[in-house]
Write the structure tokens for this entry.
Amino acid sequence: MQMLYNSDHYVVVEFDMGTDVSSDGEASTKGAYEIVDKFSRRGIFLNGAVADGFKAGVDALVEGDPTEEEVDEFIGNYTLLAQQPVILH
């Protein structure tokens, strides 16, 4: 588990889900992501194709040297579906 992003609004954590070997023999790390919206106190867990799409979007976003607001806007598109409440105990 590795924290990738922490702003006033969001936290993004990456989980290593092992390695995946493609048909051409190349190994790549499979990842899953948990995004927590601090204001709504809800989170979402992304894995599989959705996690791959999230990673590709982040990689493209980072190439352009984005501002914190641009990153938060991108992440906000994924938290629209967040249903899991964050419970502190």
